[in-house]
Design goal:
about 350 residues, alpha+beta, T-fold, ten-stranded antiparallel beta sheet, four-stranded mixed beta sheet, about 30% strand, flavoprotein, metal-binding, metal ion binding
C-alpha cells in the first residue's frame, strides 16, 4: 500500500514533473501517469489562500473536468460566505443585522456552527467579529500593555452565538453592533464541497489542500495512504508530527498564522469569554470525517484546558493533537493516529 508524505501546505510544492501542462480554471494543471492512471493537479487562489487539488483520474481530461467542477462549487460557496465582501450574504447580514433570503450554504454553516458552540460551551462563537474587526483596525504590532481593555470589553459584550436567530424570515442578529465571522468553519465546509464534487465526478483518490485544511480521498484500487505533515508551530519550515490518512479531514490552527502582537499573545483566535487570545496552545490539529468539523473544533479547542477538552470531545468523534505554547510538549486523544513526532 503506497504512502505519500505531504506537509500541510506541501501540495503547493508537489512535483508532477514529466507530464503535460495546460492553463485552465485560473491555475496551472499538470498530469502524469501513475500506476496506469493519471495524477492531475491544479492550484487556484480563493479564501485568501492558494488551494491545491490533486486528483487521480482515468484520463487527463477526466481529472481536469472533475477539478474544475470542484473549484467552481467551492468558489460559489466562498462568494456567499466571505465576510470581506460587503455584497456577500455574510457582508449584507453584518451590515443590516438581518438577511431575508439566506443561501443554503450560509444556513448549513450556521446550523453546524451553533452545534459546535453548544458542544464546546461557547468556546467556539461566530459572533466574535466585532472583536476581530477591532484588532484588525489597530496599528501593528499591538502593545498588549497599552491595549484599551474597555474597548475590548465593550465589543466582547456583543459576543453571543445564541443571539444569531434563524427563522422563516431569514437570519437575524438580535443586538445592534453584532457581526459574524465564519473564518473558523467556512473554509472547512468549502473544502468538503470540493471533495463532494470530486466524488460525484468519479474521482476516488485525491487530496485537497486549502492552507491548513486538508481533505484526502483513497477509495481507489491503489489503497494509497496519504501521510500529512503537521508544521512545527515554532519553526514552520519543520514538521512536528505526521498523520497517515486515507479518507478523512485534517485541520490545523496555530498562533503563527495571523497575529497582532509581536509576541503572538494576541492572534486571530480569541476566547469568546474574555475577548483576548488564549495562551495555552500554539497549535491544535483535528482529524475528522469532514473538514467543517475539523476546522471548527480546531478553533473551539484553543481556549479550553486539557481536562475540558476531554469532556467536550467525544471518544467516537473527531480526534485531536494540541501542542503547548512553547512548542515542546503535546497531548492527543487516544485514537489520534500520529505516526511520527519529528520534534519535541
Amino acid at each position: 500500500m503506497p504512502s505519500t508524505l505531504l506537509s500541510r501546505r506541501a501540495l503547493l510544492r508537489y512535483g508532477l514533473a514529466g507530464g503535460a501542462l495546460a492553463l485552465a480554471g485560473g491555475g496551472w494543471m499538470a498530469a502524469r501517469r501513475w500506476r496506469g492512471r493519471y495524477e492531475v493537479r491544479a492550484v487556484r487562489t480563493m479564501m485568501n489562500s492558494d488551494v491545491s487539488i490533486l486528483a487521480v483520474a482515468d484520463s487527463p481530461d477526466h481529472g481536469h473536468r472533475a477539478i474544475a467542477a470542484a473549484f467552481d462549487r467551492m468558489a460559489q460557496a466562498a462568494t456567499a460566505l466571505n465576510r470581506f465582501d460587503p455584497d456577500s450574504a455574510v457582508g449584507r447580514l453584518n451590515r443590516h443585522g438581518h438577511l431575508a433570503e439566506p443561501p443554503q450554504d450560509l444556513l448549513t454553516v450556521l446550523a453546524r456552527a451553533r452545534q459546535v458552540s453548544e458542544q464546546s460551551g461557547g468556546a467556539f462563537d461566530i459572533t466574535v467579529q466585532p472583536l476581530m474587526a477591532y484588532y484588525f483596525s489597530l496599528p501593528r504590532p499591538v502593545d498588549l500593555n497599552r491595549l484599551d481593555r474597555q474597548a475590548v470589553a465593550a465589543r466582547d459584550r456583543l459576543v453571543d452565538y445564541r443571539k444569531v436567530r434563524v427563522d422563516g424570515g431569514g437570519v437575524h442578529l438580535d443586538e445592534a453592533g453584532m457581526g459574524i465571522t465564519l473564518d473558523g468553519i467556512a473554509k472547512g465546509y468549502i473544502v468538503d464541497l470540493g471533495a463532494d464534487q470530486l466524488l460525484a465526478h468519479g474521482i476516488d483518490e485525491a487530496v485537497i489542500d486549502a492552507g491548513g485544511d486538508v481533505r484526502t480521498l483513497s477509495r481507489g484500487p491503489s489503497g494509497r495512504t496519504w501521510t500529512i505533515g503537521i508544521a512545527d508551530p515554532i519553526d514552520q519550515s519543520k514538521l512536528f508530527a505526521s498523520v497517515p490518512m486515507r479518507n478523512g479531514a485534517l485541520s490545523t490552527s496555530g498562533n503563527y498564522e495571523i497575529f497582532f502582537s509581536a509576541d503572538k499573545r494576541l492572534f486571530h483566535i480569541v476566547d469568546p469569554h474574555t475577548g483576548l487570545s488564549p495562551d495555552m496552545y500554539s497549535s491544535v490539529t483535528i482529524l475528522a470525517e469532514r473538514n467543517i468539523d475539523s476546522d471548527a473544533f480546531g478553533t473551539a479547542l484553543f481556549p479550553l484546558p486539557l481536562a475540558r477538552i476531554g469532556e467536550v470531545m467525544r471518544p467516537d468523534g473527531p480526534q485531536w493533537l494540541a501542542i503547548d505554547w512553547n512548542g515542546r510538549r503535546s497531548w492527543q486523544s487516544a485514537d489520534m493516529p500520529v505516526s511520527a513526532k519529528h520534534s519535541a
